[in-house]
Structures are given as structure tokens and as C-alpha cells.
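Worked example 3. Consider a protein that binds pyridoxal-5'-phosphate.
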Amino acid sequence: MTMVTANLRPTKVLVSKQAITHNIQQALARLDDKTRLFAVVKADAYGHGLLNVAKIAQEAGASGFCVAVLEEGLALRAAHFTLPILVLGIVPPEMAPIAAVHDIALPVGDQEWMQQADRELAATPDVPALKIHLAVDSGMGRIGFREPDVIKQAAEFAEQCATLDVEGIFTHFATADEADSSYFDEQSQHFNAMLAALPKRPRYVHVANSATSMWHTATHSDMVRFGITMYGLNPSGRALTSPYELQPAMQVVSKLSFSKLLPKGAAISYGATYHAKQAEWIGTVPMGYADGWQRRLQGFHVLVDGQVCEIVGRVCMDQFMIRLPHEYPAGTDVVLVGKSGDQEITLQDVADYADTIHYEIACGLTERVPRVVID
Ligand SMILES: *Cc1c(COP(=O)(O)O)cnc(C)c1O
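Given these inputs, the predicted complex is written out as C-alpha cells:
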């Protein structure tokens, strides 16, 4: 089951090495010396391309990587990355030996998981101890321990297991990107009580995603899990101002595959929902919802030669149509995300129109669109 990458089509995701490097360096400059930055490269580096982004992040000073699933960590190891890797989502305990062999740390949210992983590891010859990070559910309601006495008992159990190495403890905030910090503070207090219950402080105590690292700088601890901001996107959307300049790493570009003059009244695309209001130049862009350019983007726009061009008619699976201000031939550049002349379309603009967040637009771009590193 592979989505073929359309390398011969002009539709591309361009990824700026310079922007990612800049964003990481800005973040690093604000961390104290003991705080490490782990680059969050889950979901194909939020749609920017796992291996390329991992390389850029490593060169820019990241000390490790966070991924969502074990397979993403294995892909990094297969590509010979040797920095520490932490999986953020719960992995079946049966997979503990594979993670241990590849030196990939796993999160743990209950003692039962530890007991099962311990049995699996003990039954596997020549496997090193598995690094684990105790997940604390301080109010996100997703994964992790919730009560101090329960985490204390689990940590004590892990201490007795030669198969397990408690390397970290962490939590995740639900509202770090909001101006009102009252819920954040509640979660923070809950986490501190959980940390205090441990028999000893693990090497990595970490609580910060991008938003926390930007707007709650007192809580950096030993590591930040730096995701969306690395890609130059503001975690809060438009709500809070970034403490440093962010450079968006992603552009989405294409070229007109076809262009024609349609007479007044001519219909465009499925359902014939659009009719030319007069004689109109209509261009076809070779990208569609199978590429992650959602159907609901009908009525949004792209840029051609510095001009805003409306997306007319329904977005198809592989193509959509735009209204051009005048004749432009097939082969003309089209900017879907990025700058053209004085105009710019950001992932935030696309997300606003699609009634979602930029995270979802970026990681919704499918494998059919090649990722190309520039500068
Ligand atoms: C995805 C994720 C992050 C990164 O979040 P950003 O908002 O992209 O910085 C950090 N921690 C956990 C647990 C995550 O799941």
C-alpha cells in the first residue's frame, strides 16, 4: 500500500532548510544551558519530510528526536540517526524488545504495561534495558499516571527491573497556547506533585511543547519537545505573539497544467457549481484533495504572478480550477502556500478558510506530493 510520489508533476512542497535552522536557533538561544531541544518529527515531520528535517534539526543543534509511533523511530535508526529518540504515544508492550534493541525510549502510563514489557524483555536474549519515560496525565486526559501514590509504586517497580531504565518523566499541557494560564498552572502543580512522589529524579524531566517553550519559560525543565515552531508556525494560531521571529519552512507550489478562455455561463467542475460570469480565463492546477488540498477550499485562492486567483468550482481529487485575471499559458507558476510578488498565503490562511489548524493542513499533505529541500 504505497501512494506513488508524483515526482514528474510540478506540484511540490518546498522545505526551507534555512527557515528550520533559524527557528531552532531562536529557540535554543532562549534555553538555559542544561535544557535540551528534542525536535518533534512525528507524522513525516508535520508533512515536511522526516529524514530531511531530522538531518537539518540535528545540524541546527537538536539533541534528540520525538516521534509519535515506534515505526517513525525505527525509520530514523534505519537512516543511521544515532541521537536519542523518544516515542510519544503508547506502544504495545510486546514491542518493548524491538524498541530496546534500537535504543528507542518509550512512554509508560501504567504499571501493568511495565510488567508486560518486563516479561517480554526478560524472555528476549541479549536485549539492553528499555529506556522509559513516565507519562503523567496532569489534565490532558490522554495518557499517563494521574495519582502520586500510583506513579510512586510504578517507579519503585521499575527500579527493581533490570530490564527497565527510568530515563524520564513528562507531561503535556492542554492550554499552553492560550492567554489565560489558570488551567496551565493547575496542570503544572499536578505534575510537580507527581514528580515529588518519585524515589529519584530521572535524567529528563520535560513538560514543554512549542507553546510551553515560548510562553511559559519557567517550566523548561531538562528538555523541550519542539514541534510546530520548528516549522515556523505559531502554535497559538493568531492568538498569541511569538517572542521571536518565525520563518515558515513550507511552501506549496505548482504550475498551470492547462489554461483556456471560457465563454460567459460555462460551468466548472463536479456539480457545475460555478458558471463563468463573463468570458473568463480559467487555469487548471494539478493538485487535489488526494494531495491534501481539501475539497472545502473551493472559494479560497492561490497566487499567480503576484495576483490573487479564486479557486472556482469544486476541488477534484487530483486537479482544481482557478480564475485568472487574463491569459496565462500552461506552465505558469502557481503558489498555493508562500509568497508571490507582494502577496502571501500562509498555512494559517489555508487553515482559517478550511476551519481547522495549520498543523492539520501541513500533515494532511499526502505522500503523492514530493518534498524538496531548498536553500
Ligand atoms: C506533538 C507533541 C509535541 C509537539 O507539540 P508542538 O505543539 O508541535 O510543539 C510535544 N509533546 C507531545 C506529547 C506531543 O504529542
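Take a moment to read the result before moving on. The first strand starts at residue 12 and ends at 16. The two ends are 32 Å apart (CA to CA).
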